[in-house]
Structure formats: C-alpha cells, structure tokens
Design goal:
Two copies of one chain form a homodimer.
Chain A (H helix, E strand, L loop, with lengths): L6 H21 L3 E6 L6 H12 L5 E7 L4 H7 L5 E5 L8 H7 L10 E5 L16 E7 L6 H4 L1 H6 L2 E5 L11 H11 L5 E3 L8 H16 L9
Parallel strand pairs in A: 1-4, 1-5, 2-3, 2-4, 5-6, 6-7
C-alpha cells in the first residue's frame, strides 16, 4: 500500500495564500463570502436572488467554481455583475491560489462584496481557507436532516447555515426542528435561515445578514441586530 | 505555491488493490455494485428497498462509507443483512484498501451480492476503482437537470443511472427529458431508471437490472432483457 503524506504542505501553502488574500481584502474593506453545499442544493439560485436584491445598492462580483462547464457563470452573468468561472478540471474544491489567479477579472477597488460559489461538495471545500470573511453552508430540505452529523466539518466551520427549498416541505418527510438540533450538536447556536429562492420566502433574513456583514467590514463598530 | 504530484502512485496502488479484489470476487461469482451520488440523493433509501426485495432470494451484504457517523449502517442493519460502516475520517471517497480492510466482516463465500454505498460526493468517488462490477450513479430530481454536464466523470464511468425522488416531480421545475438528454451527451444510451423509494414506483426496473447482473456473474451466458 502506498502511503503518501502531503496534506500538510499543500494546506500550509493554501493557508499562506489565503492570509495574503484576506489581508488585501481587509485593506479594501471588501467582504467575501464562500458558499458551500452539495450539488443541487441551490447555491446558484440563492446567488441570483442576492444579486437582484443588491442591484444598485452594492458593488458585487461572483467567482464560481465547477469541475466542468460554465453554465453557472452564464446563468449568473445575466444579472449584470462581473462573474468569472473557475473550472477545476476534476478537483473537488477551490483553493486560494485559484482565487488569486482568477481575481484580476474584476477591480476589487470599490467592490463591496465578492461571492464565491464553491464546487458542489460537502466534504473537500470545508478544508480550504480562501481568505473569506465567512463560509456559508447550504442544505436543502430534500437532503435529509442527518447531513450536519454526517458532514460535520463544514457545519463546524460555517458561520451561518441556510436551509433551502423550504417550498418543498409540504411534500417531504423533513423535520426542521431535527435539522436545527443536529446543527446545534456540531456548531451550537449558529444562525439557520430557512429560504425558498423560488418563492422568495425567508430571503429577508439572509439578505439582512449579508448587508450587516458588509456594513461591519466598512465600519467595524456597526451594529445591527439580525432578526 | 507548493505543487505536489502524487496522484499517479496513489491511483496505481488503488488500481492494483482493486484488481486483486475483482479477481477474488470473480472466483467467488460475487457481484459487487458501487453506489455513488451527492449527499441526500437517496442511496440508503434505495438500498433499504433493495435489501427488502431480495430477502430470502439472495445472500447480500452492505459496506457503507461515510465521513462520520454510523447512522446509515444502523439504518441498514435493521433489514437483517450483514452491514459494515467504513468511517473515512474526512476522506471524500472510498478506496480499494478500505474495502479490503473491512471486508472480513462477512464471509464472501456463498455471498451473491455486495452493495457498496460510497461517501456522498459526485466528484471524488468516481476516480477510485473498488473492484466493483459496476458503478451506479444516483441523481435526485431535486438536484437539477444540469448535473450530468457539471459532474461528467461519474456519469461517464457509471453503467446505469438512477433518477430518484420521482414522487416530487409534480412540485418541481424538473424536465426528465432534459436530464436524459444531458446524460446522453456524456454517456449515450446508458439505462436511466426513474424511481421513488418512498412510493416504490419504478423500482422493478432497477431490481430486474440487479438480478440480471447477479445471474450473469454466475452464468456468463445468462440472458434476460431488462425492460
């Protein structure tokens, strides 16, 4: 059996690059959010609603990671903000050097919010710091209440959890209080917003959270109670 | 930037171990299926229905891969067949050496069918041969029609695709002919079964396919038309 232990050096290099990005974004007062979920949990749909909401209010840009295809970037570009696709060619997550390489697609001077849509995967992306202000984990109602226990790393590292596709709840055997309980087992008390990107239900809480995050980056003494 | 190229040796070692397993299973006329999907696509639910159906007809066992928790193994063990959980501790896929290590949980002599439920992930598990007869990819109706194009490797390597949660179709904007078209772009003509593990709808086709696979392993000249 071949045993190869290279985790540390790759992770160390990633951590260094992420620190550089974080420091640059700090100086520009740029908020960066890293969206992580399984394939098909609704990252792109949530981003579309978020872009629409902040049109004319915030300067935004999006980096989208995918193993293949530029479909998501094309879909997001319709909203009129700068969007760049990162095709990872088989790699199951984004790394800081990929962000650094593709970042010149937008002038970060004057940018308020950079959204990173990670590769659809609940495991790998959780280990890679991209210099973001917060990791945001999405879980759809169709995936089952047990997922926080089965994929604890991302729920531990995320600052907020979003339960998506709540419009399907009437047709599912999904117990919202059970998923809340399971998230609390891993990361007690983190906000969990219940949204339906299709009906718009529950988006307000998420949008207020994002707005507060951006305001705090510019004015660290800013206070607003997220409902 | 640290560049580390170790893919080949790890993959080579895996290929060798998979070949050893395949040869052993060949001599025992044991059929092995490797189920791969995103988290929450319904691998465990499909397995439960499959175990129930073949009770008293086939000797079966299940190996379940998960990053954390033994929930799936506990759920499956209720059906009375040997079940063993492999906890990968962060690794996003199963590898052949993990199968080899955990296999002694069951006497493969006299066993007809070993089901391997891989870690919930559409990317990583596609690269690792476990010595299986076939990879089976599951995609739920809630994940969107674009997934075969975004995660082509697993659809290329799978011998059959299963569209799960078809009971939710009336509540979704999901186009079954579009997903069929997208699968054909990647792997033209592979069978795609439409199932609902909840209602039992469409399970017959899948169960017939499994039965045929097992019969052919024992009698390579066996022929049965899968409906």
């Amino acid at each position: 059996m071949t045993k190869v232990n290279v985790g540390k050096s790759v992770m160390e290099a990633n951590a260094e690059q992420a620190a550089t990005l974080r420091s640059e974004w700090q100086s520009r007062e740029l908020t960066v959010l890293n969206l992580i979920s399984s394939p098909g949990s609704g990252k792109t749909a949530l981003l579309e609603q978020t872009l629409e909401h902040f049109r004319g209010k915030l300067q935004m840009a999006v980096l989208v990671g995918d193993v293949q295809t530029e479909n998501d970037a094309n879909r997001l570009a319709r909203h009129g903000f700068p969007v760049k696709q990162i095709i990872t060619n088989g790699t199951c997550h984004l790394e800081a050097h990929m962000i650094e390489k593709h970042l010149p697609f937008v002038d970060t001077k004057g940018l308020d919010l950079l959204m990173i849509e990670n590769v659809g995967n609940l495991v790998c992306p959780s280990s890679y710091d991209l210099g973001e202000d917060a990791k945001v984990v999405l879980l759809s109602t169709t995936e089952g209440e047990d997922k926080p226990l089965k994929y604890p790393a991302i729920f531990r590292r995320a600052e907020v959890a979003i339960l998506t596709k709540t419009d399907l709840l009437p047709y599912l055997d999904f117990d919202v209080s059970a998923v809340r309980h399971n998230i609390d087992q891993i990361h007690a008390g983190i906000p969990m917003f219940r949204v339906s990107a299709r009906t718009g239900d529950g988006l307000d809480e998420w949008l207020t959270w994002v707005e507060t995050k951006v305001a705090r980056k510019k004015h660290p003494d800013f206070h607003q109670t997220v409902r």
